[in-house]
Amino acid sequence: MKLTKKTAAVASALLLAGGLAACSSDEGGGDNGGGDADASNLEDTYVVATDTSFVPFEFEEDGEYVGFDIDIVNAIADRVGFEIDLETTNFDGIIPGLQTGTFDIAIAGITITEERKGAVDFTSPYYKSGLRIGVPIDNTDINGVEDLEGLDIATRLGSTSADYISENIEGATPNTYEQLDQAYLSVEGGGSDAVLYDAPNVEYYILTQGEDSLKTVGELLEGQDYGLAVSKGNEDLVTAMNEALAEIIDDGTYAEIYSDWFGSEPEWLDELAESQVG
Fold this sequence. Notes:
Layout: E1 45-50, E2 53-54, E3 58-61, E4 64-66, H1 68-80, E5 83-88, H2 94-100, E6 105-106, H3 114-117, E7 121-122, E8 127-136, E9 152-156, H4 160-168, E10 173-177, H5 180-188, E11 194-198, H6 199-207, E12 214-226, E13 229-230, H7 235-250, H8 253-262, H9 269-274
Parallel strand pairs: 1-5, 1-6, 9-10, 9-11
Antiparallel strand pairs: 2-3, 3-4, 6-13, 7-13, 8-11, 8-12
GO molecular function: ligand-gated monoatomic ion channel activity
Subcellular location: Cell envelope
Family: Belongs to the bacterial solute-binding protein 3 family.
């Protein structure tokens, strides 16, 4: 199944602020990737998992799955030469599904971490992100992460944001939800004091549905890399995908896809290119 490409651009205001802090080398990529892939070990079709609530990376529109991630995985599949059998699931079910072999590949704004690399393999990074705080638009007490101590903070179940809240914000309670819209509604309804999640999604929500109810505060937190996750034991697939990813970054395909969704090329494109293996 080929996923549909979305060509309409999203407002350029969604661009992340320049100068995202680069992740350290042990957080920046998968454990596999060097050398040429053995095409004889690749399948014709792979099951790709995604969670379609991470706008504008993957979401459902008019009965079709669209988004930046969808275009990226399509471009990689085209270069490697395999078809995509798409499966959707909640975000917290993606890693377990890869571990059990239910899925072969996953793309859903998945941050590369050492813990996750113990369970699955990752491609080279394909996106640089960070965490952003959102609060009610009339709130004047929360101006940065230091003001979140002891508060209830909405975020996504199974995310690195939930880990960040538990590990870095003293006395804070992470209110976790399977769907991101539930996290935003929790803040808008008074059930949580703030939302903390991946910057592009928080910024997109506040520029669209939440423009009259929420605002962002503070600095970008925790520079992060997103990678495509792959079930263990597929080293040739990871290598082939890394080679394809490096190609689409080098030949301008990546920049074109990014511009379709975010309005212009990313300021960190050169940094992304340098992080590639393949």
